[in-house]
Amino acid sequence: MRSKKAIYNIISNLMLQFVVVIYGFIVPQIIISNFGSSVNGLISSITQFLAYITLLESGFGPVVKATLYQPIAKKDNKTIKNILKASEKFFRTIAGIFIVYIIALTIIYPILVRNEFSNVYTISLILIIAISTFAEYFFGMTYRLYLQAEQKTYIISIIQVFTYILSTITIVILAKLNVSIQIIKLVSSIIFVLRPLLQNYYVRKKYNMNLKDAEGNYKIKQKWDGLAQHVAAVIHSNTDITILTFFCSLTEVSVYSVYYLVVAGIRKIIEAFSSGIDASWGDMIAKNEYKNLNEKFDLYEVLYFIVCTIVFASAIVLIVPFVSVYTRDINDANYIRYTFGYLIVISEFIWAIRLPYSSIILAAGHFKETRIGAWIEAISNIVISIVLVFKFGIIGVTIGTIVAMIIRTIEFIYHTNKYILKRNIFESIKKVFLIVIETIIIFILFKITPQIENTSYVTWSINAIIVSIEACIVTVLLNIMMYQKDMKKIFNKVKGLLARKEI
């Protein structure tokens, strides 16, 4: 049952991420083409500022999810309801604080951020973009966490696919009708309000989850220990654009956001392979199945890094050619930045490498044990980025992120192997070293392989296919050489799954 849910989660999440990637490419291009790079930069900046409200969440969400694993495994419905009630109370408080934050942001943002837009224009966008975030905290966050802990992430994915498709179609139609950006964003926000409402409805109906008689004062352990983890995650996702907003221009923010939408799309694809897996780890840990956990993680580690290397190594050489085609008709900013393109992909590549280890840590509930590293990551990211932005601009903030990511990734690998899996850390180091070697070989092959001139999406796609094939061959062959037994087990499992489908 555990494996079945994991497969459902991965497939549905891959479908979701495909839709998200399409949405992420279509919408910014529509905004840039119809309203200009500055408007796109303004929207990206506002979105990032709104994201800082999640700091008030204090990392509560992952802690709640980790707390739910054991009562779900024991089918302790009373404890489950008590946890969810306490969670709902907390998130609705956050929703209330969010309203105050929005009011403050409408006053402060137009003063602090220099741009060519009127205060009314800027404030209206802040209020409109904030709608869906408020709804998420007020209506749906608790039930989203419950579905994740139940290993039913696929329900969340299906709902999100529906809203993203609906939003994309609506935005395209409205843009063709030449309506204002405010109307476009308002309709989109209203559509995304459907997500928490549908999640809420599903859980209440499916599980008869009536929380009226549950205890709202249930004490959730490590609530504040999750703060550091959460702060580090928020800073990683939002620091760069925030610093660029203050120290550079909205045009530079737009450049960053275009490149980031590419790596964010890749990130979503990679996340799909880990979505719901942390719940499986949590279930094994709750049942003390550590031998099984180690065996499953060994195979997952090899398979995940193969996918990760193929995707990111290809992205390093393909990102700038893609952006050049994506922005070919846009002349109000220079979007062709080779060094920046390489660095932003490397940044997300490092994040991806640490993902299997962070999922184990979160599943085990080791928030307190790893909080110092989280604070170090957050502080170093901010300090280095601010220092370097004055001299190197957009490249400087990316370097700051990379340095912070490396520090944190080392800690994750060390802690997971030593304190949870209790195995030799050299096993993971060897795998990471292999990733570096594979990426270098793929990059060299790209440089020496003749390429078709990059003039359209068609020619880019042909080059992308060639690079991806080279990446697959290099990565799979080297992994067969290094991890013959593990690769054989992986092939046998895939073969078994395909045989089941044929039956």
Total of DSSP H or I helical runs spanning 4+ residues: 17
The overall pLDDT, averaged over residues, is 83
Helical percentage:
over 70%
> Shape from CA axes?
globular
Distance between the termini: 18 Å
Strand content: under 5%
Q: In this structure, how is the largest beta sheet organized?
A: none
Structure class: mainly alpha
Q: Compute the number of structural domains.
A: 1
Question: What's the SSE pattern?
Answer: HHHHHHHHHHHHHHHHH
Report the count of strand segments: 0
Would you identify the regions where 5 or more consecutive residues have pLDDT less than 50? none
Radius of gyration (CA) equals 23 Å
Features:
17 helices; 503 residues; mainly alpha
Account of the protein in words:
With about 500 residues, the chain is an all-alpha fold. It has one domain. About 85% of the residues lie in helices and about 0% in strands. It is built from 17 helices and no strands. The radius of gyration is 23 Å and the shape is globular. The two termini are about 20 Å apart. The model has no long low-confidence stretch (mean pLDDT about 85).
